[in-house]
TrEMBL record:
Domain of life, per lineage: Bacteria
InterPro entries xrefs: 23S_rRNA_MeTrnsfrase_RlmA, Methyltransf_11, SAM-dependent_MTases_sf
Record's protein name: Class I SAM-dependent methyltransferase
Keyword annotations from UniProtKB, A to Z: Methyltransferase, Transferase
GO molecular function terms listed in the Swiss-Prot or TrEMBL record: methyltransferase activity
Pfam families xref list: Methyltransf_11 (PF08241)
Alphabetical list of PANTHER family matching this protein: METHYLTRANSFERASE, METHYLTRANSFERASE TYPE 11 DOMAIN-CONTAINING PROTEIN
GO terms classed as biological process: methylation
Domain Methyltransferase type positions: 52-139
Amino acid sequence: MRSFPELVAEAEAVPTDGWDFSWFEGRATEERPAWGYARAMAERLAHADAALDIQTGGGEVLASARKLPRLTVATEGWAPNVAKATALLHPLGAVVVAAPEDAPLPFGDHAFDLVVSRHPVTPHWTEIARVLRPGGTYFAQHVGPGSAFEIIEYFLGPQPAAACGDRHPDRERAAAEAAGLRIVDLRTARLRMEFHDIGAVVHFLRKVVWMVPGFTVDRYRARLVRLHERIEARGPFVAHSTRHLIEARRPPAA
C-alpha cells in the first residue's frame, strides 16, 4: 500500500494542462451522462458549415470528432491550453484563437451556424446569440449546480445554498431566452464520482482549480492526511457531479 507522501508527490508532478483525464484511470471514476455529448457533438459538426468551440481546453473533445466543418474555430483563454490545443487541432484544419473567457467573442456577427462547448466556465449568452447565424444552434454540456459539492465542503466547510445556484439549468434557460435564443432540448444528470486514493483528489483539485480556490497541498495538508486515512479505512471518497445538456437555436430571419 502506497504512503501518503508517495501518492501526493506523484499527483503534484502530473501536468494539469488540457482536459485529458486518462491519468485518473484506476484511481478515480465518474459516471457519464446517458446522452453522450462527444458523440452527439460530432454528429452536428458533420453537418455544419462553420463551427465554433468555446473554451476548448486542450482541444481533446473537438478533436474526437471524425469530421470537422469547412471552417472550424476554437477559443481558449489559458496559455498552456492554447498551446496544447493548437498542436492538436491545427493538423485537423481547425484554428485556435486565444481569447479570455470573460471577454466578448472575437468574431463578427452571424459567423457560425454551430457553436459548441463542453463545460464552459460561464456561458455568455448574448455573445453566443450574436455570433450565431439565423437558424444556427448552440449545443453544449454544462456543469450543473452543486457539482462535486462534497469535495468542496470537505475542504472549505459548509457552504451557503447560493454558492451552488449560479449554474442552475432554469437560470441558464432564462438567460438564453433573454438573449433571443429558443431552447430546443434541456436535460440534467446527477452522476457518482469515486476517488480511490488521495493522489486522485490532489490532482483533481490542481486541475479543476475553481473547486477549492487557492488549493495547495501545504495549505490543506491536515485535511488531506485525514482524508487519506479515511479512504484507506473505509474505501473511496464519494461525491456527485451534476451536468446538463442544452441545445438552443437562434430563430431564423423573418
